[in-house]
Amino acid sequence: MTPVLVSLAIIFTQLSLLAFGGGNTILPEMQRQVVEVHQWMSAQEFSAMFALAQAAPGPNMMVVTLVGWHVAGWPGVLVTTLAKFGPSSIVTGLALHAWERFKDKPWRVKVQAGLIPMTVGLVAASAALITLATAHEWMLAVITAVVAIAGFRLRIHPLWLLAAGALVGLTGIGQG
Amino acid sequence: MLAPTLPAASPSPSTEATVTPTVMDLFLGFLGLGMIGFGGVLPLAHRLVVEKKHWLNEAEFTDLLGLCQFLPGGNILNLAVAIGMKFHGPRGAMASLFAIIAAPSAVVIALGSIYTRFNGPHLQHMFAGLAAAAAGLLISTALKIAVPIRRKPIAILIACLFFVAIAVLRLPLLPTMAVLIPLSMAVTWRAAR
After folding, report:
1. Residue B63 has pLDDT above 70, yes or no
2. Residue A147 and residue B72: Cβ atoms within 8 Å?
3. Contact A93 B90 (CB under 8 A)
4. Among residues A89, A142, B86, B88, which one has the fewest Cβ atoms lying within 10 Å of its Cβ?
């Protein structure tokens, strides 16, 4: 393994085990590691990868695959994917038995309630960082704002909002 | 075993009999889920696992989902692992996990190659628009999950502390969690009393 692959493995194993509350909570740490600490890409490139990953089907953490691919090609894909999805899956597998035993314990509900504010804070942080790196021209800021309101207020499938954003972007209006 | 077409007819859903999938059933089921799951996979997972295939009944699904939300990792990935594990141990878990990420990985790498290979101004504009929309969706997600704590000042304060530490101060996640999670637990438990 090259030093880059080792770094990827360490970063994504850590992220895998810290991802309480789902994938979006670790987005800021992922960005900090690959943009600021290792400087493998710009913040803007990271946001573009996040966007591409959102346009793909399946679980919403496919940005992991793209980061691995960008940094180290196919070996990078393999390493980041294994490191990101392996450790948390092993924890899930092992926890399955304990879960059956502690099913009716009241502390379980309380621990879950205690994690909610963290999830809210971390997802809001993800949103802020991705928006700052993305919406740097007025039309892009408009797209972000409209999609944010539409996504919150209306029951529109996210894919339509992404497609609409891509179409408005394609016109080039309001971009440099 | 109940007829697959009559799941709702059962008077007590928690004792409703379920179908045991083979490893191949798990693989194909989650492969399909990975291919169609745009945006949110969870409602589709529920339809597949409970309504269509009857691998789990409603109560079992809710219980497993509770576990998956409680553990690190994406809920839907954990759910795939837990269901695979429940029926066929590590072999089932690996089949389910691999199946659910295989197709999306292929799609995302294809999109990535398009993005890097045909990097003209039109494509750049289009991807800039896509990225802006993805950012907007993330904001809407943050707003939606904030709704349940909107009348809880202490929870809002803790959410703000996390936000400032991570987004403004750019502190590493691990030490931030080590300090703020116990704090969050402590005040949530006190408030619940």
Report:
1. yes
2. no
3. yes
4. A142
A-chain residues within 8 Å CB-CB of B74? Answer: 19, 22-23, 59-61, 88
Closest by Cβ to A125, choosing from B38, B155, B163: B163
Q: Indicate the pTM of the whole model.
A: 0.81
State the Cα–Cα distance between residues B124 and A170, nearest whole angstrom. 8
Number of structural domains found in chain A: 1
Which residue in B152, B156, B161 sits closest to B181, CA to CA? B161
Average pLDDT over chain B reads 83
Is B134 within 8 Å of A91 when comparing Cβ atoms? no
ipTM for this prediction: 0.84
Identify whether A131 is part of a domain.
no
> Is the pLDDT at B145 greater than 90, yes or no?
no
- Domain with A90, as residue range(s), is 1-103
Q: Is residue A73 part of a domain?
A: yes
Residue numbers in B near A93 (CB within 8 A):
81-82, 85, 90, 93
pLDDT in tens, B40-61: 677 778 888 888 899 998 778 8
DSSP letter for B8, please.
G
Looking at the partner chain, which of B122, B159, B170 has a beta carbon nearest the beta carbon of A121?
A: B159
pLDDT at residue number B114: 86
- By residue count, chain A amounts to 176
Written as six digits, the tokens of B77 are: 């990935």
Contact between residue B99 and residue B28 where contact means Cβ atoms under 8 Å apart? yes
Q: Would residue A9 count as lying in a domain?
A: yes
pLDDT over 60 at B13, yes or no = no
